[in-house]
Design brief:
Distance between the termini: 24 Å
Number of strands: 20
Strand order of the largest sheet: 19-10-11-13-9-14-17-16-15-20
Number of domains: 1
Radius of gyration: 21 Å
CATH class: Alpha Beta
Strand content: 25-35%
Largest sheet: 10 strands, mixed
Length: 377
């Protein structure tokens, strides 16, 4: 009998790893971070960045001629820091340690220095770089901003269960209020080395592995990675990374209240003239309802709601990587989301492929064939 490999088959631990495959966690990590604190970017026009940020649903903490700090409604540190520079680029991420002793422990393990953060953020940091060259900060004792009023959620009549009577649903077409930073996604030419670095240094653990069709014996090519907080459930992924022809930021994701906030916020963004990339749909790994947008510099950002939460007992799932397997429902993944348009992006990707194939890394001709099969799936 033939077994069909559909988008809902072989996703989680009951159909998980084969003997000898990657365990998805380090046996004795240096520390265990507890969350993603913020992301850092460089942008040439902070005013344009702030206009988009407000339409997307952020609130400004502070803005000077050289720096913009953005937050959600949840308490905590600012979730995005934007610095002025000549060209738009992603710098890296800050992860929150349980306490300052973990920052010191990680500094000792890596030979790095513990330093003080700027006064507005407060606290301590140890600044590292992952094997792909991405900046990784691990911070503790930062100043937490108080919470802001959250966006009201809707009450739903599900089937014959009535909780709303004599009242209409009228969610406004207004910016979806960002609650918090959810995750960031990277592409790297040194996938296994970089994955192992995050598992060992930060104590992250894998929720799901993806592999190219017909290449499972060569190991995974993408992973969705979460914080290990023991019996406390955490986001299905705080970090995701995939093998590819260049080291680059893929997207970052920000939680909103519910589907209505996400959809009405998207209508506001569309009306305001910003570029929609893909959505609305529901992902498979992580289960989030998603909607993707491009900022004025072309960087991809995601609104999401209703994501999965796993504790440390859930082992990694394994499944084939396909474009059609990105969503349970919703429109097909667009060329824009996949990085195949506009034409200049396709040219950049072809140039990166040619360069990667000439260099010593994990992206070889066999992996290229697997990636092309994903793009055509």
């Amino acid at each position: 009998m033939t077994t069909h490999h559909g988008t809902h088959n072989d996703l989680h631990s009951e159909q998980g790893a084969h003997a000898g495959e990657h365990p998805g966690r380090a046996s004795n990590p240096d520390i265990k971070v507890v969350d993603l604190a913020w992301l850092e970017f460089v942008k040439p026009d902070l005013l344009a960045s702030e206009r988009f940020a407000h339409a997307f649903g952020f609130t400004t903490v502070s803005r000077t001629a050289d720096e913009l700090l953005l937050r959600g409604t949840d308490s905590g540190a600012p979730c995005v820091i934007v610095r002025r520079g000549a060209r738009s680029r992603y710098l890296g991420a800050a992860f929150r340690a349980a306490d300052s002793s973990d920052v010191a422990r990680l500094a000792h393990a890596t030979g790095a220095k513990v330093e003080k953060l700027p006064e507005l953020l407060s606290g301590l940091t140890v600044d590292l770089a992952d094997p792909s060259g991405v900046m990784v900060r691990v911070v503790a004792d930062t100043h937490d901003l108080g919470s802001l009023p959250s966006q009201p959620t809707q009450e739903f009549n599900f089937g014959h269960r009535v909780v709303r009577a004599n009242t209409a649903q009228r969610p406004p077409r207004a910016p979806a209020r960002i609650q918090r930073l959810g995750h960031v996604v990277h592409q790297t030419t040194r996938y296994i080395e970089t994955l192992n670095w995050y598992l060992q240094r930060l104590g992250l653990i894998v929720s799901d592995f993806k592999y190219y069709e017909g290449q499972r014996e060569r190991g995974p090519t993408m992973s969705f990675i979460r914080c290990d907080c023991g019996t406390t459930p955490t986001d299905h992924h705080t970090l995701a990374m995939m093998l590819g022809p260049r080291n680059t930021y893929v997207h970052s994701a920000y939680q909103v209240a519910d589907l209505d906030a996400l959809a009405a916020g998207g209508e506001f963004l569309r009306k305001t003239g910003f570029h929609h990339s893909w959505g609305i749909g529901r992902h498979i790994e992580g289960s989030q309802i998603f909607d993707y947008w491009r900022d004025p510099d072309g960087l991809l950002v995601e609104h999401f709601a209703d994501g999965d939460l796993f504790d440390s007992t859930v082992e990694p799932g394994w499944s084939v990587m396909t474009a059609s397997g990105l969503a349970q429902w919703g429109p097909p993944a667009t060329k824009d989301f996949l990085g195949l348009s506009p034409a200049r992006e396709a040219v950049h990707e072809l140039t990166a492929i040619a360069r990667a194939l000439r260099q010593d890394n994990e992206f070889d001709l066999t992996r290229l064939r697997g990636l092309l099969k994903v793009a055509s799936s």
